[in-house]
C-alpha cells in the first residue's frame, strides 16, 4: 500500500522529468529516506544562474570546449561534489554527466581533469539510505566516490541516479545495478576500501578522511527535498 501511495504522489510531482523520476522510484523507493521527487529536477545545475557560488559563463565555455573535443548532444546532469581519490586526497570538483560520458572538472576554471568515462563503463551505483549526498559510481578499478554539494541543500542523489538510469534505458544499454546500503565499499587504484559515514553539524561542510585502509565521510543530511 505504501509503495502505491508513494507512486501516486510521485506521479503528481513528475509532470517534468517523468522518465528520470520513474527510474529513481524503481531503484530507491522504500530504500532511501528521501530522494527529491517533490521538487523540480533541472539536471544541468551548473548552467543555472541560481547556483550562486561560481561564474556560469566559465562553465558554459568549458562545455563548448568539451563538446568540440569529446562530442556529445546534451549535458543531462551537473553539480559540484567533494571528491576523494586513490591518493587519499579530497577536493571540490564539478561532475558533468552527458548523454555519452561522465567527466570531472576543477571547480574554479572548469578544466577537464581526465579523459571522460563512457557510460557503458559503469557497472553499478551505490548510495546510502540517508539523504547525505554520498554516491559511488563503480568502474573497473577506480570508482568515482563523492558527496554532492549545492547551496540550496537539495537532495540530488536521487536525481543523479534516476537521470543515469533513464539515459541507459533511452540508449538500450545494460542498466547498472543500484545498491542502497548503510555499509558501502569503493575500489580505488584496484584496492577495495570501506566507506564509513559519521554525522556532522548542519553548518559543517562534508569532509573525507583516510582512516587506516578505510575512508571516513563526516557529513550532514541535506535539509531540503
UniProtKB/TrEMBL annotation:
Stretches assigned to the TH1 domain: 30-221
GO cellular component: myosin complex
One Pfam family, short name: Myosin_TH1
MF terms in GO: cytoskeletal motor activity
Superkingdom of the source species: Eukaryota
InterPro entries in alphabetical order: Myosin_TH1
Protein name: Myosin tail
Gene source species: Necator americanus
